[in-house]
Amino acid sequence: MPQYIKLSEIIYRNVEQNKDFRGDIINDLNMLMIELRAEIKKTRLKLLVNCIDFNELMVNPLYANELKLDLSIVPKSSNKEEFILWLATFIQKITVDEDQPKIPKGKKIKVPLMSLEPLDIAAPPQISSDKELEWYQTAQIAD
């Protein structure tokens, strides 16, 4: 996660210095993507998708299922610390680290089945009166 935070700080600083934050969430996200594409070339990260239609994500949240994005929680760009943390998790979701080992899709993990043989432990009998309880307790102590 630290690499994503560092990258998000750089992107935020670049967009802020160029005065590209305009208050319009779609425009701001598009400017962030432009900066992200430029900065990601300097890292070992790779984008999972070529294009993200932010307008469609705002109108149809089901479109985001593939990337697991929720744009309803995007903080205001004026709140620097919160925005950088959100941007770091956003970058983490839309990129993949080339250094990470790839997990092959479709491979299933084999889990051993549990034994279906009965256990040797006897269940306590149903006790309905105090006399039965006393008898059961004395029988347990005697064993």
Description:
The protein has 143 residues and is mainly α. The chain has a domain of 96 residues. The protein is 46% helix and 4% strand. The protein has five helices and two strands; from the N terminus they run ααβααβα. The protein has a two-stranded antiparallel sheet with strand order 1-2. Helix 1 packs across helix 2. It is elongated. The relative contact order is 0.13. The mean pLDDT is 77.
What is the element layout, followed by pairings?
Blueprint lengths: L1 H16 L7 H16 L4 E3 L6 H6 L20 H15 E3 L32 H13 L1
Antiparallel strand pairs: 1-2
Helix pairs in contact: 1-2, 1-4
Compute the number of helices: 5
Strand order in space, largest sheet = 1-2
Report mean pLDDT, rounded to a whole number: 77
**Low-confidence blocks of residues:** none
Largest β sheet strand count, sense and barrel closure = 2 strands, antiparallel
- Percent strand equals under 5%
Radius of gyration: 29 Å
Which word captures the global form? elongated
Q: What's the total number of strands? A: 2
Order of helices and strands: HHEHHEH
Helix/strand structural class:
mainly alpha
- Proportion in helices: 40-55%
Roughly how many Å apart are the termini? 59 Å
